[in-house]
Amino acid sequence: MKFGKTLRVSVFESWSAYYIDYKRLKQVLRSDIPNGNGNPSDISDVWGRFDSLLRKYVTVTLSFYEASISGSESVLDAIVEELALKDMAAVLVTSTAMQTRTKNAINMLSQLSEFYGINYTALRKIAKKWQKRHGLQQPLPADYVDSIWPLADKQREVTRIGVLLSQLQVLLLRLDVSGPLTTSTAASGGPLGKLSPSTKDQTDVI
User: Cα–Cα distance between 174 and 99 in angstroms, integer?
Assistant: First the structure.
C-alpha cells in the first residue's frame, strides 16, 4: 500500500485538521510541471511554497500534539489532587466521573502515539520526495527535517507517552478494582503517591 493511502486510512476523523497534508505537498512539489499555458514554475518559487506550507503543517501538528500531552497531564494531576483532598464519602460520589476522565485520557494518548508516528513519517517521506525530484537544483539542508520537527527523537516520545499512560492506567486500576483511594494511601507513598507529579516532571519535555 502506498504511503498516501496508508495516511488516509490512519487519520482519526476528529483530528483531521491537525495532520500534515501529504497530498497537497506532493501537488506543490510537482508544480514545476508546465501549467496550462506551457510555462513551468520557477524552482525557487516551488521551493518557497513547499517549504512555507510544510512548516505551517508541522507547526499545527506539533501544537496539537503538545496540547494533547499537556491535557492528559492535567487530567492526571487534577484527579490525584482531588483524591488527596476529598474524604471517602466525597470520593465515592465522584469516582465514576473520575474513571471516565481517566479512560478518555488513556484512549486519547493511545491514538496520539499513532498520530505522532504517521505525521513524522509523512514529513520524512515528503522531504525524500523533494530531494529525489529537485535535489540537484534545490537540495534540502542536511538537517532540514530535524530543524522543523524538534521532536524528532521518536523513542523519546514513545517513552514520554508510555510513562503518562502507565500512570493513568495505575490510577484507573485503583479506581476500578480497589475502590477510591484515600488520603492515607497517598500519604503513605502508595500507588496514589507514586502518581504525582505527572510525567512532565519525570521526563524531559522537549
Answer: 10
CA distance linking residue 99 with residue 171, whole number of Å = 9
**Tens digit of pLDDT for each residue in 79-111?**
888 777 665 555 555 678 888 888 999 999 999
> pTM of the prediction?
0.76
Query: How far apart, in whole angstroms, are the C-alpha atoms of residue 88 and residue 116?
Result: 39
The C-alpha cell that represents 55 in the structure block: 512548516
- Phi-psi domain of 182 (left: phi exceeds 0; alpha: psi -120 through 50; beta: other): beta
* 147-158 per-position pLDDT tens digit: 999 887 888 888
How far is CA 142 from its chain centroid?
A: 25
Q: Can you tell me the distance from the alpha carbon of 114 to that of 104, in angstroms, rounded to the nearest whole number?
A: 16
Question: What is the C-alpha separation between 130 and 110, in angstroms, rounded?
Answer: 31
Q: Which three cell numbers stand for residue 26?
A: 506532493
| Alpha carbons 125 and 201: distance in angstroms, whole number | 33
Residues 6+ apart with CB under 8 A from 16: none
Q: Which of 206, 205, 178 has the alpha carbon at shortest distance from 192?
A: 178
User: Count of H helices and E strands in the chain?
Assistant: 8, 0
From the list 99, 103, 83, the residue with the least C-alpha distance to 91 is 83
Query: How far apart, in whole angstroms, are the C-alpha atoms of residue 199 and residue 206?
Result: 13
- Position 73: which residue type? E
